[in-house]
Amino acid sequence: MSARAFDAASSLRQSLAETLGIAVERVAGFDDETLLFGALPELDSMAVATLLTDLEDRLGIVIDDDDIDGEIFESFGSLRAFLGRKLGESPAR
Q: Which domains, and CATH codes, for the chain?
């Protein structure tokens, strides 16, 4: 796993725990197949907006409304992959 991919996964875990109030231990167990939207009661439409803002701040990326669709929040892996792509688009820090 590249450093940027690790950064995306690590930041995503931290953000999920902090913005959704999910135990760190629970989030640590999430893998690419872990379902998110529709499976986590904590992740509703309002929480999605909060999560996106937090991820933008943590990762130094911009997430446009056009970037977002339901598939991105389907699983931990799909959201992690999306963030990895956004990090690839961002200038290196």
A: 3-89 (1.10.1200.10)
